[in-house]
C-alpha cells in the first residue's frame, strides 16, 4: 500500500468519505506524497522511468512552432519592450527552452520577454531551472506582474482536480471516495440540487440522461478566471493546449496513467498521474465573460499543420537526413488524428485589442 493510501484510509475512517476532487488534489499535490511532488513523470517509455509523454517531450518541433507563433504575435501587437512570457505547469521546462531558441529569429522578442513559470512541484521547479535559468517562479497566476502577457499552458488544466456528479432524477449525487477494508472505492454522496457554476451550466449538453456523469472543475474555472482577468487588465493572449472536448459534453473522463499504461485511479495514490479531460467550451466562455475574444477551439493536428509542421519537419530532415524516420514519426505522433492530433485541442484567448491570432482559420495570417 502506498503511504498516501494508508493516510487517506485513516482519514476516511475518522471523518467519512471524501469528495473525488479532494482525493485527486491530494493524490497529485499532497505536499509530502503527491504525485507531482516526488515523481519524475515524463519519459519516452516506461523503461525511462516515465509515466506518460507530452508533446514538447515528443519533439522539439512542438515548441519551435509555438515559439514562432508567440514571436509573430508579439511583433504584430506592437513589440512591447517589457512583457511577461508565462507558462503554467512547465514540466521539465522543455517547451519554454524550445520556444526561446526558436524565437531567436526575433532577438528583440527574447530580449523583451520576462519568463514567469507557475509551478507547484519543487522537484519540477529544479528541472525547470536547469532548462530556463532566468525564469521567475510563482505558486499562482494571481501573483504575475502587471504587464502585457503572452501565456502558454500544455497539459496543465488536465491536472487540476474535478468533482464528478451523477444525475439522479432532478438531483445530483457527488462521487465520493470511501474505503472497503484496505481498498479505496467510489461511492455516491448525499443528493444535491444544483452543484454547478453558471459557466459550467452554459456549456452542458441540452439533454443529460439519468445516471450520466458531469465533471465540475472548480480549480480550472478559478485559474481561467484569474488569467482572463489578468489579460483583460494588462493585455496579451493565452494559448491553452490539452486533451479534452471542443463541444459541450459530459461523461466520466477521470483516469490514471503509470508506466505508459492506464491503471485504476484509486489503487496507488501518489504513484500514478491522475487527469480529467478539459472542458474547453467552458474555459472559452469564462474568457469571453471577462471581455476577451476566443478563437474557435481546434484540434492540435490542424493547428500545428497551419503553423507549418510539415515544412519544419522537412527542414529538420534536410539538416539531419539520418534522423528522417524519427522526425517523420514525431510529426505523425503530434498531428495524426489517431495519435495526439484530434484528442488534443487548442484554445487561444486574447485581449480585444490584439491582432488576429494565427493558425485558427484559413484567413488568419
Ligand atoms: N507542460 C508540461 C508538463 C505537463 S504535466 C509538458 O507539456 O510537458 C503538468 C504540470 O503542471 C507539471 O509541471 C505539474 O507539476 C504542474 N501542476 C499541476 N498542478 C498544478 C497547480 N495546481 N499549480 C501549478 N502547477 C501545477
How many discrete structural domains?
1
DSSP helix fraction = 25-40%
Bound molecules: S-adenosyl-L-homocysteine
CATH class term: Alpha Beta
What fold name goes in the CATH topology slot?
A: Rossmann fold
Largest sheet: 9 strands, mixed
* CA(first)-CA(last) distance: 54 Å
Number of strands: 17
pLDDT averaged residue by residue: 95
CATH hierarchy: architecture: 3-Layer(aba) Sandwich
Please compute the radius of gyration using only Cα atoms. Answer: 21 Å
Low-pLDDT windows of residues: none
Shape, principal axes of CA atoms = globular
Structural category: alpha/beta
Strand content: 15-25%
**What's the tally of helices?**
15
Structural commentary:
With 365 residues, this protein is an alpha/beta fold. The protein has a single domain, classed as Rossmann fold (3-Layer(aba) Sandwich). The protein is built from 15 helices and 17 strands. It has helices at 3-15, 20-29, 35-38, 55-58, 60-76, 94-102, 107-112, 122-131, 198-202, 218-234, 280-289, 300-306, 309-319, 324-335, 337-341; strands spanning 18-19, 83-88, 113-118, 136-138, 149-154, 163-168, 171-180, 183-188, 213-216, 236-245, 255-258, 261-263, 273-275, 278-279, 293-294, 298-299, 344-350. Strands 2, 3, 4, 5, 10, 14, 15, 16 and 17 form a nine-stranded mixed beta sheet that branches. Strands 1, 6, 7, 8 and 9 form a five-stranded antiparallel beta sheet that branches. Strands 12-11-13 form a three-stranded antiparallel beta sheet. The longest helix is centred in the first third of the chain and has 17 residues, at 60-76. It is globular. The model has no long low-confidence stretch (mean pLDDT 95). The structure holds S-adenosyl-L-homocysteine. Residues 36, 42, 54, 56-57, 89-91, 95, 118-121, 124, 154-156, 159-160 line the site of S-adenosyl-L-homocysteine.
